[in-house]
Design goal:
mainly beta, 18-stranded antiparallel beta barrel
Length: about 450
């Protein structure tokens, strides 16, 4: 990958700031240490991790701020294979492995300064374009680290990207413009004992065992900081108590497209993974009324590549258009209670003959929580159910706050149903977790 100019920009701006040490001030220092242990209930696969994430906030004058939030992962007593294969990441966003047990990365590092009537944020950062529970519709700017599949909180599972993010208020509402030269995509687990994907809805099925296969190198964008960059724009405003946003993203889809073809003279099947461009046009809406909040997101993708069961036609891939949306309702009717229900649907153009998925793919979710004893105790539950595959995922959590700095969590994750489904593929990987968060 070519060197990303934004890295140089951040370095120059930071250097210029630091040169005037009298004007550089430490506004805040803190962070989080998470100690966790998890055990899969159907086998003897255990995992222990220590996540150290300090955070520095510095200011320069009245209009410039620098945020640095590095992350260090320790896996004591075991080999951590989660980041063995980093083909999905650009060189600038790789996890740096020091040995089998220690890895680190900058995670977030950005500078924000006033430019004209708005603010420019340069550096490695997260951008939040969606707030749906469990699945993504418009939250597409940052790819996802699937180390914990979909069970981690979004702020921990999003992969920050190097980008330029400009925001300003206009007569039409709040404007946001994005330039993202970081060719990093969703990072899937390489460890077969972890959440290694096997569902034929996501991973191209191998040919019969009697057929030889060849896997070609992943075709990645060249890293050209103009032609291969992602670009986005968002307008958000309030109209008659409705929070509205209109979003556009020209980007490489974060999931690999795997083409398959017979190599007749060699008697084998060749697999060719790559990343493909798409235009995504969508938005979100939400409004509060009494005890309820009504909300939704929608997205239209111009290019969605769906796996086909017939590798003789179009190399096992069908290109379609996709319209996806989520409708949700949140209820706050009881003190210290929260209940939310959602309907996700994805509808592809054309028919679904020969495809690994249905034309309309539907998922229901239920999210609930309750606080006890002046918010010292908290219980949470998230349930997802696929109407097409009849499989499900559940996350239950009990939290206890010792004080303002230390919290303990006991979490159980369950997968059930069709092993070919997105959730059911992990039916043998239910997990029990105990972890502690210490904030300093």
């Amino acid at each position: 990958m070519k060197k990303i100019p934004i890295l140089s920009a951040v370095t120059l701006l930071s250097s210029a700031t630091i040169c005037n040490a009298d004007a550089l001030e430490l506004e805040d220092f803190g962070g989080r240490v998470r100690v966790e242990h998890s055990s899969q209930t159907h086998n003897d696969y255990d995992r222990s991790l220590i996540r150290l994430q300090p955070e520095w906030e510095l200011s320069y004058g009245d209009s410039t701020e620098i945020v640095f939030k590095p992350r260090v992962l320790l896996s004591p007593g075991q080999f951590d294979a989660a980041y063995n294969d980093q083909v999905e990441r650009s060189e600038a966003s790789e996890i740096h492995r020091y040995n089998d047990y220690v890895s680190a990365d900058p995670f977030e590092l950005h500078l924000q300064t006033r430019v004209g009537d708005g603010y420019m944020t340069l550096g490695k950062q997260q951008v939040f374009w969606g707030a749906a529970d469990g699945l993504r519709v418009m939250d597409l700017v940052n790819p996802v680290d699937f180390r914990d599949f979909i069970m981690a909180e979004p702020i921990d599972s999003r992969i920050p990207l190097w980008m330029a993010n400009y925001q300003r208020r206009t007569d039409w509402g709040q404007l946001q413009l994005l330039w993202i030269p970081d060719n990093t995509y969703s990072d899937y687990v390489a460890d077969p004992d972890g959440y290694f994907l096997t569902s034929p809805k996501i991973i191209a099925s191998p040919p019969p065992s009697t057929t030889a296969i060849s896997v070609e190198p992943l075709q990645r964008p060249d890293g050209d900081w103009v032609e291969d960059a992602d670009y986005g724009a968002k307008i958000s405003r309030v109209v008659d108590n409705w929070d509205l946003s209109f979003n556009y993203l020209y980007h490489y889809n974060d999931e690999q497209v795997v083409r398959r073809r017979w190599v007749g003279d060699e008697g084998l099947v060749s697999f060719q993974p790559s990343y493909e461009r798409t235009h995504t046009l969508g938005g979100s809406f939400s409004a509060a009324s009494g005890q309820f909040v009504y909300r939704g997101e929608y997205a239209f993708d111009s290019h969605r590549y769906i796996l086909s069961e017939d590798i003789q036609q179009n190399q096992g891939i069908e290109r379609r258009q996709d319209f996806s949306y989520v409708l949700g309702i949140d209820w706050y009717g009881w003190t210290d209670h929260f209940v939310s229900a959602q309907l996700f649907q994805s509808v592809i153009s054309g028919n679904d003959e020969g495809l690994v998925r249905d034309k309309v793919d539907s998922t229901l979710t239920l999210n609930f929580s309750r606080d006890f004893t002046n918010q010292i105790w908290r219980i949470e539950g998230l349930f997802l159910y696929s109407l097409n595959d009849r499989d499900s995922a559940f996350r239950g959590r009990v939290m206890y706050d010792f004080d303002d700095r230390l919290s303990a969590y006991l979490q159980y994750e369950n997968y059930a149903g069709n092993s070919k489904g997105v959730f059911g593929q992990f039916e043998e990987k239910d997990r029990l977790m105990l972890y502690f968060d210490y904030f300093f």
